[in-house]
Model the fold of this input.
Amino acid sequence: MEWVNAVLQGTLLGGLYALFAAGLSLIFGVMRLVNIAHGDLIVLAAYLALSITAGFGLHPLLALLLVVPAMGLLGYALQRGLINFTMGGDILPPLLVTFGLSVIIQNGLLMGYTADPQKLQAGALETASLTLLGLTAGVLPLLTFALAVAVIGALQWMFYRTAMGRAFRATSDRQDVALLMGLNRAHVFGLAMALSLAVTAIAGVLLGIRTGFDPAGGGARLIFGFEAVIIGGLGNLWGTLAGGVILGIAQAIGGQIHPGLQILAGHLVFLAVLAVRPRGLFPKMEG
Amino acid sequence: MAEPLLAIDRLDVFHGDFQALYGVEAEIAAGEMVAVIGANGAGKTTLLSALAGLLPRPAAAIRWQGSPIGALRADRVARLGIALVPEGRLLFPSLTIEENLIIGGRMGRRGPWGLEAVYRLFPILRERRAFAPAQLSGGQQQMAAIGRALMANPALILIDEISLGLAPVVVRQLYEVLPAIVGEGMAAIVVEQDTSRALSVSRRFYCLQEGRVALAGASGSVTREAIGRAYFGV
Amino acid sequence: MDVTRASRLTRLAGIAGLLLVVLLALAPWWAGRADLRLLGEVFLYMALATLWNLLAGYAGLVSVGQQAYVGLGGYLLFALTILAGLPVPLALPLVLAAGAVVAVPVALLIFRLRGAYFAIGSWVIAEVFRLVAAQVAALGGGSGASLPPAVVRTLAEGRDLREAMAYWLAFGLATAVLAAAVAILRSRHGLALTAIRDNELAAKSLGIDIWRTKLLVYVAVGALTALAGALIFLQKLRISPDAAFAVNDWTAFVIFIVVIGGIGTLEGPILGTLVFFALRETMADLGTIYLIALGAVAIAVMLKAPQGLWGLIRARTGAELFPLSRKVTGIPSGS
Ligand SMILES: Nc1ncnc2c1ncn2[C@@H]1O[C@H](COP(=O)(O)OP(=O)(O)OP(=O)(O)O)[C@@H](O)[C@H]1O
Ligand SMILES: [Mg+2]
Done:
């Protein structure tokens, strides 16, 4: 039973990792960019929610109404004001610029909020749980998982069923021909980053309620998100959810064996997938 | 004299350090069909790409209804009503045929062309609309590429190598619909390797040779010898 | 006609460089203890920067996980001396060899990731190493361990001589790394690297085995970075997983040094290290602002002057201190 429970908790944790990963996956899909600052932006979103909940006395989930658009705007501005200037094909500039951004965000947060760990207070939501068939699951992890499924479903729908999704795919396919369709590449990339950071906002708030955060925590979030993307297979959003779940289960089982093994077990599963199936477990099918 | 739709004046275009066009002069009136001919590497694709805004070119060298457009980015040029059917078709591989058409019409310019009209022109595309471009034959892909450009209801359509790599019967089909397209009041610049076909559908022509206009005139009155000389520079 | 790599400036630089090397080798006689330590640290960073530059600037392997090897080297030194009882002079070459041995399977794994994904993959490796180190109870687990005085004495008797030895090791490593970099870049492999960096396809068509060349560089850099790590923690005398595998200290700073100094040049990392320490010594009181400024400067350099400070200097003066680029001299006139 303990083990079944570990798998359940790991699956639910995987929802959070899928939320870390979805934004990363999206911008890689549209513009082949790997944003090293992605994890720090997740943490930044959590701090933003912290200030909003403190300032207005809002519940953190309600604060999402402000944090999501704020992060979206930030994403658009960041892309058009900075990252677009690095998108020439050489991999070094975007990598190093987002790396620099990561250090700036981390230290900016350190100045603004000190190094003390923080947590978003969500009241009864944090402790509420449901019991079914002898298994107990927290309402918050369940909600997180449901949100992850909803976010990925929405992204999938946006990508394959809307005009914006067509613009994303067309720009990703052939940037110069997309221009001929009147698509402004800089704007399309800005929208993709806006969307990525909007998802990041959700991830950050849920992270903040669930485990707390500090300015140095971005790296780990980037890595978890990255591992979920690679395990699931590049360019496959549902695969990313599966990757997050696999990572979460690996960590939960590792933690069950020995608390020191929790994170390590996740990394080892990732490396094993990389060794055996370098394109991920569910690589994108053509057509 | 009325302002031409598009006027090209001393157009120099470079690929990096390599100069591909030298002082090209040309113009096209609204609703007119003009052919651009020339040997391999003469600069035809370069000319159309520069007109569409895909290559850097002098700001004042291209005028659209009297205003210079040489400094505009390609997406801005497209919004003016200039559509390019690129060499090699270049459909979006991860979009279905129908999505390729729809994205061509996303700028929302008014005019006769829409999904229904394109499907009426090329009925096979309606059958294949849910397919990926790679699942279509070369000729069908060319139809989709033309359809995608028509969807923009452009005032000027630039078509690079309609017939490249296509079966003769398909080529004949495509040329049969060309007058219908231009008949809607759209101007067209058609690049073609097959000189006699190009001359037979167009009103005027320009012949490029090593980046320069070697000959230009009315398509009906030019002799084979003159074309041959302009083509190969002998 | 004669193809030579040495211009007048490089020859002058060579003579000046030789004098400088002698002067620096004598530092224990003219520098105070604190200055000597600082100089040692400068040289270790110079070595790390040159090594990272070989990876990212020449081999196109942009790693953000080199702290894996710094930490590995540090921990291996502690393990070999404390647990296996080896004297430090014997442990150091073993660290070098072990670094190479570990780098091979790591490369086999993360070479499957391309470009930016390779970067994050290398970071995952560093995290794995850190978490494993935290599980080694014999070296203090998560809280780390100190180097006992008995071990330290195996380096040299007497504090002054020990400090001098630590300095000479750091200085020696930096010089050796630089010399190795020059040698690699002047070799056939160096040509291959430049070809790879400029164009993988072209390199392939030249019949260069890109994968093997990259592997070679990765393993050599891994081994030398591990040795640098051992020397760093030999100087610090204390190690913990968080300090040993710190992404900020061993990778972020190193990347900023190389980017600001000039990536893809040999002079860049040296100049960058000097700038970095000059800034640190004058601005370190500012703490986090200093780091923010460093990040911002690195971004600005990447966008506005991707060749870095040395690139700017070279564009102005044509200067080149290391005899790398081939110049054709003495073309007979009128032929
Ligand atoms: N991207 C490029 N980089 C460098 N040179 C180019 C590039 N594209 C074309 N060229 C050169 O510019 C010249 C004109 O090429 P262009 O493609 O415009 O000719 P074309 O008339 O369209 O030929 P074709 O009939 O083969 O399509 C050629 O000499 C070609 O080699
Ligand atoms: Mg052509």
Remarks:
- Residues 25-244 of chain C form one domain.
